[in-house]
Queue: 3 jobs
Job 1
Amino acid sequence: MSRASGQPGNRPNRPGRDDSPDRLYTLTGGRSRSAPDNPFDLVTLVVAECDPALGMQSEHAAILRLTERPTAVVEVAAMLRLPVGITRVLLADLLAAGLVSARHPRRTAITDPDILEQVLVGLRNL
């Protein structure tokens, strides 16, 4: 019986936490963490390099559909309702197979001293 609803079989809506450990173990082939050199952090943008293929694991196919346009890892995990760690393992599999590409969002460094001075003055005026 579920504590949240008092009804058998009804579970609270908590992404990733209600998935059975067996299911998550099966999704990743027993891996709970990705390799240390995994390029995926929460804001890494993922882009599909192809369409899903027949016979592909359903989560891999879902990732390819979700990433037709650049999508952050954290968004993919949320849409799949999977823990980020599990999502990173799945993304690493797709990257190794050449089915997705990954890149970090570009950050432009502000090095102009005049702009930095204006920001500092603005902060002081707060």
Job 2
Amino acid sequence: MERTSLVELPRRHRPEVQKAHQGVARLLSHVRMWMLALVVATAGGVLPAAVATPAAARAAVDTIPVGDNPLGVTVSPLGNRVYVANAGDDSVSVIGRPSNTVLATIPVGDSPAGVTVGGLGTLLYVTNQGSDSVSVISTLTNTVVATIPVGDTPAGAAMGRAGTRLYVTNASSDTVSVINTLTNTVIATVPVGHNPLGVTVSRDGTRLYAGNLLGNSVSVINTITNSVVTTVPAADGPGAVTASPTKNRLYVVHGGSGTVTEIDSDTYAVIRTVPVGDSPGGVAVSPDGKSVYVTSQNDDTVTAIAT
């Protein structure tokens, strides 16, 4: 399948293609700026999408400079570290919390996009778009301890609640790879929407959410059967997505409108829409559910939002 994701393009081509994608998305966002068309079919009928208002958006609390073209972001289980994958300079920035300052920069593979933590914080999993693989890095020694082949253009990564399953979106394959972290092997491949980027696991671990950038949708996957149970429409190119560990909330990044939408994960109604930086790429929520971190590709920053 032809590669269509913006994040895997060589840097010399990224500005032209990115401007073209953003031009269309921003035109649409004039009509849908404060609305996310999230409608889910249920046994009782169709739920209407709620409309977020400017008054519902709370201000960002901090902006943190990181590496070149930051994409994926995750928070450690203890909440004291934030890891950011910088696709432009093949590195991962390590941010300390609550100071929100960069403590270290770790060299990784070719064009890293997604990042997640496992092994009770001792392992870091980074997707490498340029090599169609996942690097497993020891956070104690900052060395690569394993490399896992996955699908075409791996983008997002999320760890299952038990820590034995790793989920990786393959942007150009339109699939999600399910990986056994005990053996570092792919045990299932789930077809989803067009150009999946972000992926996250629900608070109870029973559902997986994948944001389909070019499909303008979010795929909801049953983690027991590894199959899609519903597809939720979403406006303005949904990419990165994360679930709160403390309440039934999803946070979806929309690169076209430069916003993050907070959604009730039970009803799929929009709670609020928050403006962030230029071309947001990744999103993560802290273990206490009080902070949401959003990477901005064109600003080379991370925006911290109070929930």
Job 3
Amino acid sequence: MTSATRAPAGAASGEPDREPLTLDDFARLARRRLPPEVWDFIAGGAGRERTLTANEAVFDAVRLRPRALPGVEEPDTSVELLGARWAAPVGIAPVAYHELAHPDGEPATAAAAGALGLPLVVSTFASRSLEEVAHAASAPLWLQLYCFRDHGTTLDLARRARDSGYQALVLTVDTPFTGRRLRDLRNGFTVPAHITPANLAGSAAAGSATPGAHSRLAFDRGLDWSFVARLESVSGLPVLAKGVLTAADAEAAVRAGVEGVVVSNHGGRQLDGVPATLDALPEVVAAVRGRVPVLLDGGVRTGADILAALALGARAVLVGRPALYALAAGGGTGVRRMLALLTAEFADTMVLTGHTTTGTIGPDTLSPPPPGPPPPGAWYMGSSLSGASHLGPPHPDAPHRTLSLAGRPHTDPPPGPGESLPGPADSGPPSSGPPPGPTTVPRTAPHTDRSHG
């Protein structure tokens, strides 16, 4: 993005920027620096944004069990995935057009993640070539793929990824076309002319400046699970399925030969009203039964969120919007700072819950709800039918048990000095979860729209 399309630092408040201490701080800085329509494109979700809101709200429900005198000095935060060692169980999710946030684009993001030993999943709609991003990277790279009507386009991307040293392909399986994103429609958003999908050409790129309309013309709606084997045979790379929220789809993905499953609702940008990713995680983990690793993206904003996802069976998490917020706030340096904060929080949370390695993090790290009905607005984790404190994905033959939230409003990051919050947002109806079992805590309060995903 050229300087002409970016607001100057501190312009919205007239105050100097402060050193960000949380991921919400990066979001606040990004909102001040980006044009409003670009902010909305990055931060917004589909429909009334109920799922967008719920992704973070469910993490706020989690209650951790601390460990007194844990005797842990320096925890080992690393995790192994598909034969590669990550410094921590967190990577950067695929997000289109990093140049919308900063002119240095995806190479800056890749370099920042690599400096910390963390992976990047590059989007099909990257604003820089696969090869240029690979040149800047020093940690694992995966390539996210949409399947175009011209399958040759997608298969060629897979071959290029293999030849450039990418270690895996991530097939997005929840997007026959992109969701109806009201902010973009109201803004008449188009990608600026100087930013293009660097890895696409011909019919696959035509009209891509309007992402929603382009997806309806270019994506293959007839795609089925047989395409997984085709991708693997052409590229020789492991394929993960991204966009799985149910046991049925998890089972179908494993049967199709995927090497991993990513529990994702597209950051709340696809079908509004589907479960939050942490809500869906236990069902997917139970269905997979350890045959392949399960990852999660959507709503992760703290180190405690990472630990909660691991406690419920994820091997690692991916963060998307925070990477672009940090890129907008400070280029590659900002991304490195954001990832360092997140992983340091995770290490602290490991110590305070008594874990020396990621492999010991399990459901007993999370608190069950107290006995009796929940107070209004309270959020708790579901417990087993016996009332035992064991928490997490049930055995496939066990009675159904869910992770749920009772709900409370969640809003944009609080304004900085001199800033004001946006106008009143529409309130949506209570989010609907899976069919309640005997121990499911009901959702008792509606979510509200927000501008920060």
